[in-house]
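If you are new to this repository, start here. Below is one unmodified record pulled from the training split, so you can see the exact layout before writing a loader.
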Amino acid sequence: MARDRRAFYAAGWLISAGVMAVTFRIWQLHVREVEQRAEEAERTRDEAAQRRAMEERLRIARELHDSLTHSISVIQVQAGVAVHLSRKRGEEVPPALLAIQEAGADAVRELRATLGVLRTEEDGDGSGLSQLDSLVARARMAGLPVTVTMTGAKRPLPPDVDQAAYRIVQEALTNVSRHAGAATAWVHLHYEADTLLVQVDDDGKGTVFSTDTSTGTSTGTWPSGLGLGLVGMRERVSALGGRLQAGPQDDGGFRVRAELPARAPS
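And here is the target side for that same chain:
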């Protein structure tokens, strides 16, 4: 009788253990199903967000193409005709006209690169410090004397830093040409172990505006056309976690100084 009772208890324990094992397995399957549903929902949301972002990029690409391509092409054609007529008449082609022609060709190249980026999921617009010589040459053709110096151990930069450095120099030189009057500009690049320093100085009439991204403070007012350029610089530098200072100097002129994180490869 005792033996039967022990067998009964043993069978009961086995059944209970089996039920617990099955229950645990069902619970595991249920948890996994919930996780899969959550992952699928998250993936669906991500795919929908990516799809919306891509649609917006395509819309912007179409707008840029329709609004800018024609205008830039007209500028190129008109500049080309003017250059041709000047040479046909045996006249010296004004350097500013040649600069306009070159700038138009460069604008077409950059627009095509930008449109290509907008139509893909890649970052960057194809611009970088490898094109600095061409940028400086165009500025000189337009009548702005520019001197470029470089210190430190030059090395390849992360694409976003390389692009930002080029754009900062480009915008700074554009501002000098537009707002500094008769001026000379100096571009200085300094490579450090973890930082790229980009500095553009000029000796023009300057401006009453200054800004510092490290504190987020600004003083003075922006001349027409200058503000948006500095805002764009600030956004580029801030996105990289860098520091931008821009403002007039005590001895005259204007300085743009950007410190961009650019850790050297180990």
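Two things worth knowing about this chain: Residues 208-225 have pLDDT under 50 and may be disordered. Residues 20 and 141 are 84 Å apart (CA to CA).
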